[in-house]
Amino acid sequence: MARMIGAEMFFETLIHEGIDVVFGLPGGYVLKVYDVMPKYADRIKHVLARHEQGATHMADGYARASGKPGVVLCTSGPAATNTVTGIATAQMDSSPIVVFTGQVPLPYLGSDAFQEADHIGITRPCTKHNYLVRRTIDLPRAMKEAFYIAGTGRPSPVLVDMPKDVLLGEDELVIPESVSLRGYKPPKKGHPGQIKRAVEMMLAAKKPLIFGGGGLIWSEATPELIEFAHRLQVPVTSTLMGLGAYPPDDPLFISMLGMHGSYAANMAVHDSDLVISIGARFDDRATGGNFEKFAPNAKIVHIDIDPATIDKNIVVHCPIVGDAKEVLKQILELLPAKIKTDRKEWLGQIKEWQKKHPLTYNQNGDKILTSYVIDTLSKITDGEAIIVSDVGQHQMWVAQYYKFKYPRTHITSGGLGTMGFGFPAAMGAKFARPDKLVVSVCGDGSFQMNFQELATAVENKMDLKILLLNNGHHGMVRQWQTMFYDRNYSASKFEVLPDFVKLAESFGAKGLKAKRPEDLEATLKEGLSTDGVVLMEIFVDCEELVYPMIAPGGAMNEMILGASDVA
Amino acid sequence: MRHTITLLVDNESGVLSRIAGLFSARGFNIESLNVAETLDPETSRITLVTSGDDFIIQQIIKRFNNMVNVIKVSDLSDEVRVEREMVLVRVEAKEGNRAEILRTADIFRAKVVDVGLKSYTFELTGDKDKITAFIELLQPMGIKEIARTGTVAMKRETKLQKRGEEK
Question: 0.90 cut: is pTM over it?
């Protein structure tokens, strides 16, 4: 066994775990790690972020685009507290990241030493688990367990806190071969009895519906999902996080459901007699938030890897705890190759709803509509790009109008709704998938929350496109003020905004802008085909609202379809 | 409804605050919480008493089960079980009531663990109601200080038949 210091063990264990990129920032208590880093530079790339929140979103974007854990390295105190928003974001969307923080030496713990914070206490509610490493020899084991916990079961963030003396201490490198934790046995296969029951319910249902979520993407269940939907001839709707898990052009796909979901999807849920939820947790944005009015005529089959989501928001008739892909395989074994039930009427009804109120916009004025921008982007890229949206109105238009063909191509902060997530996450996604066109779609509000990472993008010579939709406002705030606060536009307009093109240029990126509808396509085409970091600033209409919409607490069939429905 | 939940957990620092944190994050109250090492020094047993409707309790148990440091969770509320708590009570003992205090303590089979010129200190073990009754009786005599442990609980080996229940 080789003897080495903790800082070297850190890299040896990362390499052993197959990690090749770390997003981070140096600082006092992790300086030894940075000191030995050059020795490992050929095997581990370090991306120097400009802010720890940026680094954490990068790791998150990397994890979502690749399916592999994203890694963050930073120092103690303020650095660690800066990661909290990123950790909570990853937690809410079940993204596996492992955050390594430096900590004051063990004898100083709890003494309010310089740059000391209780990382374990602060991150306890937003991590799946966290570790304070007390001995150098324990570091590789803690790291191995951290990666195992983050990446298995319901993927989630884990934090490992590394006191300075642990990083400096010398011991033998012992990386355990496998992980065995008495209190952690993530489920894989579903209970056969429950699966049998679920299949019986599926075969008996007249108006079944698949309600797919982000779990489908994490478990890579797309092939099984398509086979399942086709065999059962059942329509498929998706939560925000589930977009990309099912091909958008498939006739059974009825788009996203929920607060800004399609009319057909929401009506179908309301009318359905069997909701088959797979890898979704019945979040209030997906269900309308009024759980009593949700799918009033339906029995519910709930497939989820996390038993704690069962019966949390919705009373479930048939729970199946297990990995979505494994459970779908088990279901397919029991499901006949061709079902006898005639679904003509149900599918016909859904077609009618789709025809009655399709997702649509009317680009005829001088001002550019964001919906038109996203539709154009979708057409130009043919749904082949990875789109990382930020949070706000544009996020909903991305979900509605971009046709995501593949899993892991739609990346967004769904659960926590973290503005500032998009741009750094897009960088992480590009590191994970350098072969893909990655577009960071953001608003002027959200981009201002983490634009310092432009420096990181340029420094790494990234080929990354930023589509910045400038409406001069916090658009979604303005929309709610329009609809629910008597048009009292309090603090939603930006009195001062930077010239984003100049801003990009000041970092060494390229900037383009478009103000008129007729310029949009050319600007997008030029921006997307120019190498390097390119920011395309599109000036859009701040009056445009995201429709359809379910007001908070409304039922799925109580939709506001357009401006004429608003008092 | 009142629930007695026992947890077998890793004997590590921070585990108790993970458990307690779950309650504070959701605004639930913990009636009592006890923790001590088991025969295996690597594990501890926690006895936790809380109240809430079935939905809340079910959620709490599921979340406990999700914790990496939690090895086993049992809700003993519907089980035949032994529940005990212990209390130390210091009672003001004046000339006129010293004998009466001792008599009361004797009825409860409380042990005297400290005697002074001004006070007696008793130790009493029993279920929650017995402890409460003892404290209530001593109260008029002047309790100076109490230290109560809260409940510890264990399932009984044999399931006693409830009245009217058939085999």
Answer: yes
